[in-house]
Design a protein that fits this description.
Length: 284
Amino acid sequence: MKFTSGFININKPSGISSAAAVSIVKRVTGMPCGHMGTLDPLASGVLPVAYGNASRLFSYLLDKEKVYRAVFRFGVCTDTLDLAGEVLQEGERVPSEGEILAVLPRFTGEIGQVPPAYSAKSVGGVRAYKLARQGVAVELSPKRVRIFSITLTGRPDEKSYAFRIVCGGGTYIRSLARDIAASCGTCALMSSLVREQSGPFVLENSVAPDELTKENWESFRIAPESVLALPALSFEGKAAERMRNGLRADCGAQDGEYKLYFDGAFYGIAAVENGSARARVKLV
């Protein structure tokens, strides 16, 4: 059976863009594809890619918890806040482990964070990184992000510290490197980043893009219904037909959103109001 919608959990390697990884999936599936949560070219790890209509579910997944392993190099910074940029400062002080542990509590909970100038944030309809590359001064407004925990996990070398970061969607790890260093009176950049989890997608069941072929890609499919943490509603016969035609059907369920099944097959998402259901998102 050929499924027309689904997800493939890509393990993006360092050195390629998220768009390049998606293009590989598009080529082997022969279907429209999109990705959730851009990873910088130097970063690696979990990159959920939707094919067919599964991208219609992204709004239900973007705010899910994300887990990163990051290495911050202190005493040096670049305009991009990572190794890809032009060096702005170097030879600055490297803080002690005690100094870093003392400031980490400031970066947990809901915090304000200024995105990097070299980011995909839109400024007047233009991506910030495009303006920055043209030498245009970019001033981005702080945004609220949620950091559940930051744990110092090691010291790869005398200038670097490793961290495990659990956060909500929209968090810039490069900005965390900058801001943690600033709280210690110095500067830093992000030298390594691996995304271990993005909502229900985890590194352990991901696949490298170069492992995908036109013959095997369907074996890596993740069913859309399996990533939705919603209760289920099922309809058959005339009630299912009414809902396929955009009409409501009585169900007696509580108000809210549900995974929607017609005649035993997953269809999309239903919204229930006052005991009446209507299909809200269609995947097939």
